[in-house]
Design a protein that fits this description.
flavoprotein, FMN binding, two-stranded antiparallel ribbon, 14 helices, TIM Barrel, Alpha-hydoxy_acid_DH_FMN, alpha/beta, 8-stranded parallel beta sheet, binds flavin mononucleotide, FMN_HAD, oxidoreductase activity, single chain, 398 residues
Length: 398
Amino acid sequence: MFRNPWFETVAEAQRRAKQKLPKSVYGALVAGSERGVTVEDNITAFSELGFAPHVVGQTEKRDLSTTVMGQQISLPVIISPTGVQAVHPDGEVAVARAAAARGTVMSLSSFASKPVEEVAAAGAPLFFQMYWSGSREAMLQRMDRARSAGATGLISTLDWSFSNGRDWGSPVIPEKMTVKAMARLAPEVIPHPRWLLDFAKSGRIPDLTAPNLTPPGGEAPTFFGAYGEWMQTPPPTWEDVAWLREAWGGPFMLKGVSRVDDARRAVDIGVTALSVSNHGGNNLDGTPATIRILPSVAEAVGDQVEVLLDGGIRRGSDVAKALALGARAVLIGRAYLWGLAANGQIGVENVLDILHGGLDSALRGLGRSSIHELVPEDLVIPPGFTRTLGNPLPVREY
Ligand SMILES: Cc1cc2nc3c(=O)[nH]c(=O)nc-3n(C[C@H](O)[C@H](O)[C@H](O)COP(=O)(O)O)c2cc1C
């Protein structure tokens, strides 16, 4: 047990997660692909940006609240969807409770380990995330279920490229948690008694199924079974995505946009929001950091749809930088997963508090009274920082 369960930075949450989790579970959170260029650039790029602070004239009170897809949130940070099967016995329910406690949105992956009904009961505003996987009928049924449970927004993640190699090695994840699989994992698990103890106390074993993909009257598929279905589904066209948006009929976010021409197509099919995202660097390695791409996408479509960013957010100051470059809000992935691993629901609240505090401090330094006042001039942007992908029209370069 750590003497003080509270941690002061996301880096410390990561250290604790590494100490607490079996190697494969921690490895699944680190994720990344190929050389890891993108996963690293997502972080490095934020550190290349500086601030231009004021010395006098800061404001006493600062407003961090905004809305995303119609949901009022107390800070411009929402939970990004992730499948967190074996991190913590309470999984996505703990994350949703933390989101509710801190006044933000919970986004639930269709590959998550907890049923959408249980996650909705936590009381946070809820977005449901789907891949383009299975038949249209199955997709309609999954959307209906999420809607009935209380999801108000749909996130369609379309950037996955099924990259499966990592130079540093991929984690070993069993198909099912059978006694045999557990025995095989024992040498990894035994040195991490606290992780095992948390599961033992909950009376559960890590559930490697995807209960939100259960067919009517059927059983929840295993994570790999669901992955197989997804791999075999032909990739969608823009017309398919337009169908999905129409079928959902409510606020709709396209997650995974890098190119300006794609952003414009997304506007054309009527999305409510898009997230400039490279799936946290888990996809096509070599895609630039999202913060480098954000200004071009925000300038092209930011007056027509809500532009969000995810990838590499580890500090409140990172949130300030993203907002200054045109994001309405950001989504976080690994940061809350590490918090969850370190200290369950309280650990996720701890991470949201770190980001809240860091953003507030950045606003104070910059002499801003609201997140809506942040502008590129608040930053020191090195020459050649930005990247514009796939854009035939001129956009502002830094
Ligand atoms: C372990 C892990 C699982 C993920 N699972 C999903 C998922 O099921 N659906 C999805 O849209 N994105 C998924 N993502 C991507 C995240 O939603 C988000 O885009 C990414 O983590 C942001 O980068 P960050 O981790 O640096 O914050 C996953 C990411 C990680 C690290």
